[in-house]
Design goal:
Blueprint: H1 21-29, H2 36-44, H3 52-59, E1 78-85, E2 88-95, H4 101-106, H5 114-129, E3 134-140, H6 147-151, H7 154-166, E4 172-181, H8 182-186, E5 193-197, E6 201-203, H9 207-215, H10 221-228, H11 232-237, E7 243-245, H12 256-277, H13 283-299, E8 303-308, E9 319-325
Helix pairs in contact: 2-10, 5-7, 9-10
Length: 340
Amino acid sequence: MPDKNRPDKGPAKDAVPRRDKDRDQREAKDPKPRNDAWERVLLARHVQRPHTLDFIRALFKDFVEVHGDRCFGDDPAMIGGPASFEGRTVMILGQQKGRDTKENIARNFGSPRAEGYRKALRLMHHAEKFSLPLLTFIDTGGAYPGKESEERGIAMAIAEDLLALAKLRVPVITLVTGEGGSGGALAIGVADRVLMLENSVYTVASPEGSAAILWRDAAQAPAAAAAMKITAPDLLRFQIIDEVVPEPKGGAHLDPPALFETVKSVLLRHLNDLLTRFKPDDQDGIKRMLNERYAKYRRIGQWQELHSENNNGNGVSHVNKVADIDVEHSGSADLLHSNN
């Protein structure tokens, strides 16, 4: 019988959960193989993981948050503004999640609407006008797909961000800190240097969404995460990102101060390198920077093409050769930074 004097708020503190001994023995004999990709997905989503505002408070000084898109309104899921980084003024931009349900609702769980991406575009143009390097922090499951986003033109807003970043005449560095979900992440992620925290993920669709499409079963998300190759080491191997930033053992949430020191040194190293190679007052240097940014994204996505001959006389068609396809950069980036 339940204790009528104790309100029903879950099990008593001294309650010991019952264990299935047969199940424990089966797991001991035949343990499931470790799914590193899914473990990283869970760490990337950890509620105590540092978010964009945590990085801003730890790494930057004199941050001034800019609000509104000058068209519809403000979006708390996308934050940004100028700040000082090791004595240099930079522009900060990033998605912001919440720590609890109330804050997540206010921040729309880190999923910006159209006005958030238009605010991002406003800050990109501001950075270019005043020659401020742009540092972006990606942490979103994706852009918000609701009715209001469609009404306010979110597809066009994201497309305009992508185009603006492709031809932005200042250095751009992106750090994926948690989830990097689909076009909502890429909208602030077209950069000269793309970095990822060790336990972050970057993906075209969530593991749950991919599992629902492939197997009609969202419970297959761990298998989808492993198959999609969405972790930082995978993407570094594919040359999609430029560096994996190590985290404290067990995850970033266990020792944020140590993580912040590591991130500061990595960001500073890449920023100094870009500013040394492409000086803001050197028009030829800026043009080279834009050309290299263009070539960087043209190189992403390597594949092989199979060529088959006609029937070889034995009634069997076979592979003639395997050709590596590589896209050569031929100066087409000039189209991106033209005035048209």
